[in-house]
Design a protein that fits this description.
Elements lengths: L1 H12 L3 E5 L5 H7 L8 E6 L3 H8 L3 H7 L4 H15 L3 E7 L10 E8 L2 E8 L4 H23 L1
């Protein structure tokens, strides 16, 4: 339901969307593109798993990666801002985090959202399997963008 409503809202308002994915590795883009008519609003996405790709393709500052790491609010914001600028989109979403299956920070997730109203990042603590964390991140990202569109158009 989330992607269908989002595509409908973006299309109705004549707005566009781009994605920058690390944690979700294309799942967010795929969920959006599963909706008939997504090509009217979805410009494209970039899967940036490695830090040098985040820096070179999304304009994430090397200082951000050194000081805060790729799994941080600053990185999520810069990823969203970078893909929004690169694709010249109205809106952009980014995902970064630790999906596990092992490590002390498993479930730490950041979603970046860039819009005409500004750029923000959301910090989440999710639980479950690697796949469950990635799927929940997609669902939440779609919900956050839908709320932003409803609020600011």
């Amino acid at each position: 339901m989330g992607a269908e409503m989002l595509v409908a809202a973006l299309t109705k308002k004549g707005r566009t969307l781009a994605t920058a994915e690390s944690l979700t590795a294309g799942l967010l883009s795929a969920e959006i593109c599963n909706v008939f008519g997504a090509s009217r609003c979805f410009l494209g996405g970039l899967c940036a798993y490695q830090d040098h790709i985040k820096a070179n393709m999304l304009s994430v500052f090397p200082e951000t990666l050194r000081e805060y790491t790729a799994v941080s609010a600053p990185c999520a914001r810069e990823m969203a801002a970078g893909v929004r600028e690169k694709f010249r989109a109205d809106y952009a979403l980014s995902t970064t985090g630790y999906a596990g299956p092992t490590g002390e920070d498993v479930g730490l997730v950041f979603i970046g959202l860039a819009s005409p109203a500004g750029i923000t990042a959301y910090r989440l603590h999710l639980s479950g399997s690697r796949q469950a964390i990635r799927k929940m991140t997609v669902k939440i990202a779609l919900h956050l963008l839908q709320k932003e569109i409803n609020k600011n158009g």
